[in-house]
Structures are given as C-alpha cells and as structure tokens.
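Hi L.,

You mentioned the student needs an example of a multi-chain input paired with its predicted structure. This one should do, with 225 residues in total across all chains.
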Amino acid sequence: MNQLTEEERKEIIESPPIGTWSLMLIVSLSMVAGWLFLYYGVFLPRGMIN
Amino acid sequence: MHIDPLEKKWAQIVLAICALFVGIIMIDALFHSVNAPSNVETINSATLHLSEEFAEDNLGVQIDDKGDITIRMVAGRYSFLPKKIAVPAETKLTFRWVSIDVLHGVHIPMTNMSTMIVPGFVAEIETSFPKPGNYPVLCNEYCGLGHDHMWSKIDVVEKDQWVKPQITSKEGDTK
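Structure written out for the whole complex:
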C-alpha cells in the first residue's frame, strides 16, 4: 500500500465499496431465504397451531 | 451524531428484514390463526382424579356432538396418560394437558406441538397433524430421575380410517 501514489489512494478511497455491498447482499439474501424456508417449508406444513 | 453511510445502509437493511419477518408473522396470526398458544385456566392438580374433566374415564380422545375433537391428557412422573391414542390427520384437534405433580413439557417431534405443562394450569393447544404416522410424545422439561423414560405415543391415521370414539358432551363424558 505504501507504493501507491496519492492519486491511486484517492481513487480507492472514493470508489464505491463493492465488496461490502456484495457481502451485505449475500448475508441479507441468505438470511431471508433461510427464514422463509424454515417458516413456509418447515413450520407451516407441520400444521396450524393456536 | 455522525453515522457512516454504510452503517446506515446496514441498519436500513436489518430493519427492513425485521419488518418483513414481523409482517409475515402478523399476517398469519391475524388471518390464518397461527398464534403462540396462550390459555390461562387453573385447576387443582392434587384432585385431578376427582375433577369431572380429567377423571380417568375422561382421558384420551373424545368427540362432541358438534364434531370437535378434544384430547385430554395427564402428565405425571414418569408417564403421559393415556399411553397411546389415535387421532385423525388433517383435522383440528384440541389438546388439553394437565400435570398431577411437577412441571412437565410435551413435545411431539416433527410437529408443531410443544408446550409446558405447569401444575395448577391447563395447557390448551389447537393444532392438526397433516401427515399420518406414529409420533412419540416426549417430556421436554426435566422432571426427575425418570424423565428420560417419560413418553407415550400418538398414532395419526388417515381421516377416513379413523375410528370415532363415542360422542360426548363438550366438557367430556361426565355421565
């Protein structure tokens, strides 16, 4: 990192954090998919509860 | 207070996901009767055998003149009574559980039946079993040295193969 020029460093800092967004997307979608599967795929088919 | 834009995004996503889950649960609770069981009804655990509803002859599966099926079961160290019952699949069933001694729990694996049986209270749950089969009934609250051996069985049979018991009154057969 020390070999970066000032311009390169600035470009990196100002560029959008694509990695973080991807991670957010993957984590969020996985969580939603897992929850929906357990709710609609496991819990509800086992019968009503009241 | 400064909040980093990325943190804001995280917070928004987390809140949106929570709102989605809560929304789905609320819709099912309000429109499809999927609720956490909540029945507050007291009973004297020491005199269950003298009570009309949980007298020995009244335990097990009963069907009233409206066709509603009620299953009354007693939990006591270290057994559920009756030991074996048969119920129809895909039918609304009302379970009423009581304890004669200490705190017990009931869990029927692969179904949504799971509740605590608190001495002095009647645990009532409405549920249905979509899939026919033999299900174990297990105690899931440690109740003493014999806890591991506390179980009974429920046979869930096809609706048309289920043999109806004698029709009784809503409160059980007290004749």
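You could point out the following to them. The interface with chain B takes residues 17, 20, 24, 28, 31-32, 35, 39, 43-50 of chain A (CB under 8 Å). Chain A has a mean pLDDT of 89.

Best wishes,
N.
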